[in-house]
Amino acid sequence: MKSVILILLFTTITSRFCAAQYMQVVNGNGVYSGVRTNDIQLLSQAEVAMGKNNDVNGNPFWNEDWKMALLFTGEHAILVPNVKLNLYSQDVWYKVKDSIMMIAKKGQVKGITFFNGNDTTSVLANFVYLSNGEGNKFSYYQFLNSGKAQLVKLSTVSINKSLFDPFSGKAEQNYTLQTANYLYYNSTLTPLKGSNKETISAVLQQGNSLKEWMDKNKNRLKSESDILLFLDYFNKQNNQ
């Protein structure tokens, strides 16, 4: 199935970015016949192999706590009470009855909406499973706002191994978090590196209007919050 842009409407969901509307990019036909609550077998799960990487310090998950989440496959939206996103393996973990931990089949979950507690009107974060444009490497990208122009964050975790310590008799291993920001526009991910102003201006074709907005609002587009303020302005100007 082709990759298509899906605008998923949920009248029961709101967030600080938008009301009852999310733009998700997933592989599928875009037909969702309602939210399912008892069809986790559609995730083609495998049980978590315990003991793997137990000697690594730190946490490989986006959030260490189990969160209620809506998991999107190509055809289904499944509400699951306990979900985690593993940033090291880029896998979706979840619990089934008797607290057995499972892992969804790689690539089966195309999008994730995490909620605050059990409140499905309070969205914590949205992730979409996308290719980085280099071969078949896919990761979960966090979409930080709604609209045609979106700020996207990629968080990945690697294992950093220190030098051998003769006193402890081992080399410490630690999970290390790396993040990168992208601009998503017209179905294209553009890395934000160096001058955010130049990149955003070139992609959105803003020219002098971006400089005028920056000067008026004393905004240098340095931080995520700065960029989100401009994208909110841009999307409203373009009725998105």
Task: Describe the protein.
There is one protein chain. The chain is mainly β and 240 residues long. The chain folds into 2 domains: 3-191, no CATH class; 195-240, no CATH class. It is 14% helix and 44% strand. The protein has 3 helices and 15 strands. It has helices spanning 196-204, 208-217, 224-237, and strands spanning 3-14, 19-27, 35-36, 46-47, 56-57, 67-72, 77-86, 91-95, 101-103, 111-116, 119-131, 138-143, 150-161, 173-185, 188-191. The strands form 2 sheets. Strands 3, 4, 5, 6, 7, 8, 9, 10, 11, 12, 13, 14 and 15 form a 13-stranded mixed beta sheet that branches. The protein is globular. The model is unreliable at 1-24 and 26-33 (pLDDT under 50).
Radius of gyration: 20 Å
Q: Beta fraction of the residues?
A: 35-45%
Number of domains: 2
Q: Level of helix content?
A: 10-25%
Low-confidence stretches: 1-24, 26-33
What is the distance, rounded to the nearest whole angstrom, between the alpha carbons of the first and last residues? 27 Å
* Count, helices: 3
* Global morphology: globular
Oligomer: single chain
Strand-pairing-aware structural class = mainly beta
Reported for the largest beta sheet, the result is: 13 strands, mixed
User: What is the averaged pLDDT score?
Assistant: 80
Query: What's the SSE pattern?
Result: EEEEEEEEEEEEEEEHHH
Total strands? 15
